[in-house]
Amino acid sequence: MLKRLSLLLLIVASAACEPFDLAKKNFPVCTKPSAGIGYTSDRLDVTFFLENPQGDFNAVGWDPGDGKGKNRVGTRVTYNYDKAGTYTITLVLVNSCDDTFTTTKKITVSN
Fold first, then answer.
1. What are phi and psi of 21, to 5 degrees?
2. In what order do the strands lie in the sheet with 76-80?
């Protein structure tokens, strides 16, 4: 009786599930991203760029650190500060495997 019940449960469970085939799935293969923050400045105009980028990344985001919420996207971006000061720049790299790399750097701009 226990054998029949086990077999019946197995049949019901198998009928309720859709077959799953891993051969049809494509899983991304990624290398974790990393980079340093490079920059050049001409008074209040600052250009940020990636220094020594490593790994895979699909998205590059920059926070210029002035609290305005005007983030930039791209491997090389230019930003104009309103006033001289020291700012903490944040760089975020993300790849298709959802690996995220974040780094910061303090810079001083003057007019």
1. -125, 105
2. 34-42, 45-54, 76-80
Query: How far is Cα 40 from Cα 62, in angstroms, rounded to an integer?
Result: 15
Give residues with Cβ within 8 angstroms of 106, minimum separation 6.
86, 87, 88, 89
Output the pTM of the full model: 0.75
> Tens digit of pLDDT per residue, the chain (111 long)?
444 444 444 444 444 555 666 666 777 788 999 999 999 999 999 999 999 999 999 999 999 999 997 899 999 999 999 999 999 999 999 999 989 999 999 999 998
71's CB contacts (< 8 A; 6+ apart) are: 61, 62, 63, 64
